[in-house]
Each structure stands twice: as structure tokens, then as C-alpha cells.
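Input (structure):
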């Protein structure tokens, strides 16, 4: 949460900062700000409430030229959304932008007798404390930052400019991400790779225990206690600039929905050898996978739904405990873990703080950690014993789409291999399973091209305040994901229910004004689901039915019927997800909302 960009070099910094903030805006967008050295080497600060476009208008009116500055787009934690609370925060010599939470800011206010603050933020407290250290150490940047790191508690990525040190940017981080690069136009630092893709394919990850210093010519890191120079490893990025652009689509979300066939192929192919899953390249051997007797998947939001799908398919096959946990809960429990427990953190960003904390807990208790992550070299990937990368390319829209389907694919590859190694799936069954998985990119393409009924559904939902999704077994999990997608970008209050549960209370809410979207893809229980549909229809609900094209149903059972390709019910989640993503997308656009940046949300949740 919160986007950070900093640049020091030889060209116009304003453009780099504003472009960077636009591409990082998905990390937070309730206010934004920049500070920079003008050509007299004085610091200027410009801030604005609202999206980056508001800030752009103010920066355009400012005539100063600059080649060194930093910018921030905020997702509020401490303090309301106001100009005062927007970053950068300044105190005398110190200017700070920050992603994270300084947890001990209240005790710092007492300890350092801080009387006057301009904002309600924890960040300003850090700026005031750092300024004290800077003055006490006779303006020594490294010693004063080192003292700050020993003083503040919490998680953070912070960039600092000292007013008397033009062209220099300092950065520190604990858990929260930062990436940096040096090019022939100068040095750039950002919260994630989308901020630096246009300038370089090489990047470094500032180590947690270091103070990083950017100048127009290079980037140096110093161990934060000894202040000795540290080696920085240069990494290579395999995303293209195009993959982080809209490429003609009106929104990132629609682009990312359409990228799913390719993303799935890119996820599956690297992990297949001789037509079956193979994980030897990531260093985990078959003996180790075979010895697993308990699988715990930990994730948040949409990634958790991917885990639930995998559990519902593989618990009956594996016949060992396979459970999915809400990471923000798991981290505060005492999980049962043995040396044969496999913990699978699932995360698109690889930075979600609760997933990371759960990973650390499980690791300390002795579990093997095999994460499923999209963003290369992210904190979760680096903290795991093994990592399966999902290779979906950058996901920019806040609502997760392609990351979800590739997470399911990665879980299917892994769990089917474990089932085979444990003799719970024959070689033939495994090959059949993988063949069906390989067919999903085409099924998804076909689903996307048949979107006319979905657009009609969106026109209908546009005027509604509430909506229900219902389904059974896997279709219930697809309902949870469909409801999350619809509510987060259309703001229509949407809940998902296991269809059989309706009668136990929720059916009281069914009226003529309540749309119910029912999902029916499992032949074994289709008749049960259709009975539940009749029950809500009898109470005047308007029905939208997403159903396997081969199933039998009364033609007038629903106002809208969305047939999906006849596939094994264990794979129906792929076309169904695309349908529910498109329902959410078109409903949001019908309502004229900001699809890619829904209110109150941010793409990577790096605060608790
Ligand atoms: C919803 C959504 C979120 C994320 C969740 C986990 O559309 O995107 O629910 O799935 O915040 O994020 P990652 O996968 O980055 O850990």
C-alpha cells in the first residue's frame, strides 16, 4: 500500500515522478505529493488530495525545474485523507515519504517530547525524530538514519531527502518493498517494478538491513550498524514495458481478463516435463513431496479463494488434511505443524503482510514453505524454501483476475503431482488431469468472446443495491469470488451463500428486488442447485443462471442464462471465473466507476 518513487539524475524529474506515480497509483490513491530540489537547491513540496491527476494539475502550474525529487501516492492508515496528511512530510532538514506503519509513533511523541505536528500521521513523527538525530550528529545522514532504524518499530519503506544534500536520496526498508536502478539518465527508486520498467531491465532490491544512497551516478548500500559498504546484486526483469501498459484496452482489468489464456500457458508450461508436473527446477524433490501428510494454504482475498478451490478438489483425492486459512487469522493461531507439513502461501504481489507473517510463523514451527507467487523476487518468494512463480506478468488493476486463475492452475499442478507420488492418482489419471488443464486457455478464450449476455446482465445489475451469488461445493467458492469481484468494483452489496444454507436464514432477504446469480457446473448436484433456484424464484428473486451448456433446465428458470463450456466440474472454475469477472467489470463500467482503482482499496496490502 502506498506508492513510492524517487529520481536523481540529469533530466526533468517532474515527468519521471508523475509518470511513476501514475503507474504506482494502484497501490493507493487517496492523496499524492512530491517534493524536489529546485534550481536554487531549495526544497519545494506540492501535495493534493485525490488521485494523481489532481497533483499533476498543480505540478504543471509550478515553474521550477528539477532533476531530483521524490513522490508518493497514499493509502491512508494514520490520519484522514487531507492535504496535511499527504506525503511528503517535512521537518526542518528532513523530507520523508513512507509506505508502512511506524507502530511506536505514540511512544516516540512522548519520548522525544514532540509538541507540534502539522499532520496526524506516524510518518511525520519519524521525520521529526530523524531531524533531531540529523542535527545532533552534525548533519551526518548515515549515522542519523542508522539511529532512526534503531528507534522506529513497525514495517516500512522510506525515502528521505535532506534539504542540505541536493541530488541525494536515501532509502531504508523493513518488510515493505523497494526496488531501484541506475541508468544513463540517473538513479530511480520505486515501490515496485512498474515504476522502473520504462527505464531499465536491471534492478536491485535494497537489502532490509541497509541504508541505500542514490546519486545521479550510482546506488550504494551501507550496512545500517557498521555503515560498511554492502554488495548489491543486480537482477534482471523479464516483464516488458508493454505488459505494464493498457495496450488499447479501456481498463487494465479488461486487459488482464483477456490475458488469462496466455498467462495460464505461461504458468503451466515451465512446470511440465514428459506431460506431467515436474518441480525439480525449483529444487523440491519427489521424495519430499511424497512425505507430505498435511497441507496448509495461507492467503488473503482472491488468493484465498484459489486455495479453497484447490482444497475442494484435492481433499477427496489426497485423503490427507488440505486446508486453506485466512492469513490475517492464521498468524495469530497456534497451527499444528510437523516436519511433514507443507505450507503454501499464495500471493500475487508476494508482499501481503498477513500472508508473510503467517509464512514466518509456519517456518519457525518447522513447516516446509512452498509459495505460489506472481511477482519475482518479492518478499514472500524470497522468504520461502521453494517458490512456484505464476508468470502472469504484471497485474495492475486492483481487482485480481488473471492472478486468480493462474494461482488455481499452479495449485492444481502441485497437488496433482503430490497425489500421483502418493499413489492417489494413476499416471493415466494425472495425464488426463493435466491435459484438461492444458485445454483451459482455449476454453477461456471462447468464454471471453461470448460476452453479449454478460453485458445484458450488467445493464440489469447497474440499478441494483444488493445481489446474491449462490452455488454448491466448488460453485460456492466461485460464488465467493464472484461476489468479492462484484462488490469491490461496482459497490453493489453482494454476498455469496452455499445454496443449501439459504433456508437457514438468508432467504428472508429475498424479494422481487434481489438479483440472485446461481452457478451450476456439477452434474452430481445440479438438481439440488436448481431446486434452490426455484425456491428463491418462488419468492420473486430475479435469477441469473451460469450453467454448464449440457445441463437440463427449464427455459424460463432465469431472466438471463449464461451457458459455459461443458468441462469436468473440477475445471469449470476457469470459465466461471471469467464470467463473474466480466459481470463485475461491465457492471462497474455501466455505473461509470473507476474500475481499476475502486474506492478505499489498494493493490498490495502491506499493512496489517
Ligand atoms: C481482490 C483482490 C484481493 C487480493 C488480496 C491478496 O480482487 O485482489 O483480495 O487477492 O489482497 O493479494 P495478494 O495475492 O497480492 O497477496
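Output (sequence):
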Amino acid at each position: 500500500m502506498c506508492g513510492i518513487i524517487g529520481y536523481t539524475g540529469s533530466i526533468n524529474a517532474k515527468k519521471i515522478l508523475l509518470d511513476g506515480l501514475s503507474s504506482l497509483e494502484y497501490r493507493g490513491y487517496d492523496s499524492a505529493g512530491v517534493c524536489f530540489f529546485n534550481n536554487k537547491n531549495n526544497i519545494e513540496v506540492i501535495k493534493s488530495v485525490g488521485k494523481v491527476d489532481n497533483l499533476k494539475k498543480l505540478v504543471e502550474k509550478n515553474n521550477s525545474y528539477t532533476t531530483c525529487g521524490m513522490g508518493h501516492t497514499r493509502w491512508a492508515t494514520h490520519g484522514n485523507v487531507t492535504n496535511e496528511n499527504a506525503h511528503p512530510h517535512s521537518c526542518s532538514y528532513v523530507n520523508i515519504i513512507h509506505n508502512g506503519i511506524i507502530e511506536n509513533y505514540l511512544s516516540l511523541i512522548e519520548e522525544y517530547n514532540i509538541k507540534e505536528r502539522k499532520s496526524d500521521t506516524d510518518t511525520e513523527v519519524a521525520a521529526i525524530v530523524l531531524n533531531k538525530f540529523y542535527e545532533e550528529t552534525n548533519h551526518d545522514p548515515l549515522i542519523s538514519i542508522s539511529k532512526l532504524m534503531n528507534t522506529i518499530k513497525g514495517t516500512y519503506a522510506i525515502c528521505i531527502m535532506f534539504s542540505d544534500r541536493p541530488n541525494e536520496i536515501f532509502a531504508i526498508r523493513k518488510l515493505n518493498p523497494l526496488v531501484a536502478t541506475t541508468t544513463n539518465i540517473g538513479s530511480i527508486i520505486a515501490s515496485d517494478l512498474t515504476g522502473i520498467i520504462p527505464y531499465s531491465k536491471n534492478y536491485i532490491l535494497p537489502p532490509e538491513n541497509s541504508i541505500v544512497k542514490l546519486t545521479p551516478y550510482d546506488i550504494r548500500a551501507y550496512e545500517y550498524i557498521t555503515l560498511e559498504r554492502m554488495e548489491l546484486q543486480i537482477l534482471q526483469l523479464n516483464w516488458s514495458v508493454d505488459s505494464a501498459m493498457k495496450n488499447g484496452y479501456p481498463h487494465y482489468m479488461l486487459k488482464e481478463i483477456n490475458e488469462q489464456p496466455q498467462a495460464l500457458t505461461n504458468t503451466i508450461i515451465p512446470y511440465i516435463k514428459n506431460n506431467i508436473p515436474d518441480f525439480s527446477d525449483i529444487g523440491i524433490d519427489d521424495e519430499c513431496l511424497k512425505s507430505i501428510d498435511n497441507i496448509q494454504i495461507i492467503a488473503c482475498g482472491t488468493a484465498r479463494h484459489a486455495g479453497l478451490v484447490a482444497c475442494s478438489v484435492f481433499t477427496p483425492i489426497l485423503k490427507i488434511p488440505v486446508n486453506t486459512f485466512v492469513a490475517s487469522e492464521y498468524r495469530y493461531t497456534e497451527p499444528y505443524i510437523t516436519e511433514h507439513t507443507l505450507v503454501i502461501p499464495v500471493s500475487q504481489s508476494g508482499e501481503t503482510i498477513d500472508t508473510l507473517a503467517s509464512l514466518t510463523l509456519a517456518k519457525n514451527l518447522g513447516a516446509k514453505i512452498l509459495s505460489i507467487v506472481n511477482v519475482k523476487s518479492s518478499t514472500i518468494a524470497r522468504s520461502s524454501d521453494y517458490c512456484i512463480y505464476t508468470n502472469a506478468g504484471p497485474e495492475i488493476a486492483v481487482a485480481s483476475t488473471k492472478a486468480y486463475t493462474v494461482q488455481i492452475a499452479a495449485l492444481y499442478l502441485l497437488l496433482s503431482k503430490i497425489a500421483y507420488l502418493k499413489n492417489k492418482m494413476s499416471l493415466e489419471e494425472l495425464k488426463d488431469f493435466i491435459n484438461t488443464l492444458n485445454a483451459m486457455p482455449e476454453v477461456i478464450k471462447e468464454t471471453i468472446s461470448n460476452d453479449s449476455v454478460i453485458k445484458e446482465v450488467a445493464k440489469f445489475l447497474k440499478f441494483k443495491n444488493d445481489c446474491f451469488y449462490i452455488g454448491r461445493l466448488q460453485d460456492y467458492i466461485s460464488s465467493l469470488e464472484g461476489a468479492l469481484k462484484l462488490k469491490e468494483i461496482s459497490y453493489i452489496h453482494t454476498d455469496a451463500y452455499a445454496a443449501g444454507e439459504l433456508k437457514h436464514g438468508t432467504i428472508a432477504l429475498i424479494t422481487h428486488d434481489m438479483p440472485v446469480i446461481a452457478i451450476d457446473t456439477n452434474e452430481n448436484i445440479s438438481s439440488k442447485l436448481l431446486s434452490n433456484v426455484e425456491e428463491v424464484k418462488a419468492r420473486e428473486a430475479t435469477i441469473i443462471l451460469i450453467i454448464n451448456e449440457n445441463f437440463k433446465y427449464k427455459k424460463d428458470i432465469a431472466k438471463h442464462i449464461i451457458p459455459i463450456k461443458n468441462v469436468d466440474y473440477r475445471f469449470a472454475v476457469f470459465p466461471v471465473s471469467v464470467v463473474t469477472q466480466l459481470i463485475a467489470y461491465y457492471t462497474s463500467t455501466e455505473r461509470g466507476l473507476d474500475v481499476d482503482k475502486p474506492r478505499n482499496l489498494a493493490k498490495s496490502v502491506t499493512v496489517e
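Notes: The pocket of fructose -6-phosphate is lined by residues 300-303, 347-349, 352, 355, 399-400, 484, 488, 604-605 (CB under 6 Å). The two ends are 10 Å apart (CA to CA).
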